[in-house]
Amino acid sequence: MRKNSFTVFGQGFVGTNISIFLKKRKCKVFIPKKGKYIFKKNLHNVIYCIGNQNWLKDPKVTYDANLGLVREIIFNNKFDSFTLLSTTRLYFANKEGKTSEDDPININSNNKNFLYNSLKIAAENLCLTLNNKNIKVIRMSNLFGDNFTNQAYLLPTWIRNSIKNKKIDLYINKNSTKDFIYVNDAFDVLLKIIKKGKHRLYNVASGKNIELFKILKEIKKITNCKINYTNSSNIVKEPKINIKRIVNEFNFKPRNNLIDLLNHLIINYKK
Fold first, then answer.
1. What CATH code is carried by the domain that includes residue 104?
2. Is residue 263 in some structural domain?
């Protein structure tokens, strides 16, 4: 296995940050052009992070990004390892405390909002069914970092709105909670998993949830923006992610805290 040669499929927030991370560590990185997925050469260590969450408006694109292209790349290319980046969002319908890699995932096929999760599960199952120990799946929690110009997720949207519009509108209850992990912390353990992980499925998260109002309070302090709380009764409390596997195997401990890095993220976005 050529340990320092990678192919990164996906040029969004995650793919961009992974490519930058790898290059800073003197790794050779090949980033295929969009729409090209089959190659004659060895792709060495493939990291798949193509994704699409717009399942209600465009189910086909969502299918291709989260499942269809996974099949196409795995079965039509030569590689040393293949790592599918999945999501801890899969645990949303699980009961509290049922978020380890060995816990079953709850899916409601009658609910159209489960399409994204269903596709992710199918892609994971495909990877883990193949008899190749170098094909692995990593469920990432909410990543934060730089290079999020077009990212439509919660935190980047808040930062953009705090600067451009001088206000943030919150449409869920302020006591809602999420798990956030800094990209470099996540990718550091990602590399260790690819190179010497003993298992084929891992959770990568901070293991701690933070209330949204604490994040908003800090953004307001830095940008002097207005926070419009709608007092929604819709509380979204993501289940606490079990990270014992990466703690025990790699002595993992996040080095970066979201609140502490908000000023850095906002300054870099302004630049």
1. 3.40.50.720
2. no
- pTM (global) more than 0.70: yes
Domain of residue 121: give its range.
5-148+180-208+242-255
Secondary structure (H, E, C), 176-225: CEEEEEEHHHHHHHHHHHHHHCCCCEEEECCCCEEEHHHHHHHHHHHHCC
State the alpha helices, DSSP H only, in the chain: 13-24, 59-63, 69-76, 115-129, 154-164, 183-196, 212-223, 244-250, 258-270
**pLDDT score, position 1:** 60
Is 204 a member of any domain?
A: yes
Are 113 and 177 a contacting pair, CB within 8 Å? no
In a domain? residue 144: yes
Query: Total structural domains in the chain?
Result: 1
In a domain, 167, yes or no: no
Q: What is the pLDDT of residues 95-114, one digit of tens each?
A: 888 999 999 999 888 888 88
**Distance of alpha carbon 189 from alpha carbon 20, whole angstroms:** 16
C-alpha dist (Å) from residue 5 to 18, 44, 69, 195? 13, 6, 21, 12
CB atoms within 10 A of CB 33: 7
* pLDDT attached to residue 234: 83
